[in-house]
Amino acid sequence: MEALDPAEEWRYISERYRQMSDEELLALAPQSSELTHVAQQALAVEMSRRGLKLQPEEPALPPEPEPDPDSPYADSPYAKDRELVEIRTVWSLSDALQLQSLLDGAGIPFFMGPEKATSAGAVTSNFANGVSVKIMSVGVPWARQAMMHYTPENEPAPTPQEELSEPVVRCPKCHSEEVVFDGLIGDGQINDGQISDDLDGEPRAASGNSQPKFGWTCDSCGHRWKDDGIVDE
């Protein structure tokens, strides 16, 4: 078949499109990029003559929003990296601003308080009660470097630890506190208030699977006894 000249091609295609239904033209229009230049023009003219318009394509779905960094992301390979970890507790606005400046300078996003404020000025919690500062775990190594220059001015004083008091052992006979620990002894080694010693003069430890006892001697009355080492308050 000989190639048609542009004029003949135009008449041929225009006549063909005039014989097509509206539905056929509308179905062909989305594929116009595959037609020749003459065919594209003839299709556009015929659709314009009939007042046909292509239906707008359905809008593409919007991109998924960035996930909340505090979500578990069970199915994400980056779930662990996005988990929030606490790096510091701040106790004043000035300390929070100082820490914010260091983290911002290192390009590390952070969240302050239960409200997850992204700036110190947006914190609504009471700094006097301490405000937690959290970041995603992936940024912890960089945060540690940045926080080397953190010098808080409003840290609470450490709570003094209570000194553990020594347990007081009293003689069960005279209740004197002048008691001497004789060592661990086995069952049956105290007879009539006396602790039987081995050949070396030392109290013998329990043999076998028996639980050894604590042997005691009262310096005040000379009473000797054994117990489990538990002091009755």
How would you sum up this structure, described in words?
The structure is a single chain. This protein is 25% helix and 15% strand. Helix 1 packs parallel to helix 3. The protein is of the alpha+beta class. A hairpin with a 2-residue loop joins strand 5 and strand 6. The model is unreliable at 191-208 (pLDDT under 50). The chain has helices at residues 6-18, 22-28, 37-50, 79-82, 93-105, 140-146; strands spanning 84-90, 111-112, 131-136, 179-185, 190-191, 194-195, 213-218, 224-227. The strands form three sheets. It has a three-stranded antiparallel beta sheet with strand order 1-3-2. It folds into three domains: 6-50; 79-149, no CATH class; 179-227, no CATH class.
Give the arrangement of secondary structure elements.
Elements: H1 6-18, H2 22-28, H3 37-50, H4 79-82, E1 84-90, H5 93-105, E2 111-112, E3 131-136, H6 140-146, E4 179-185, E5 190-191, E6 194-195, E7 213-218, E8 224-227
Antiparallel strand pairs: 1-3, 2-3, 4-7, 5-6, 7-8
Helix pairs in contact: 1-3
Features:
three-stranded antiparallel beta sheet, 8 strands, 233 residues, elongated, alpha+beta, single chain, 25% helix
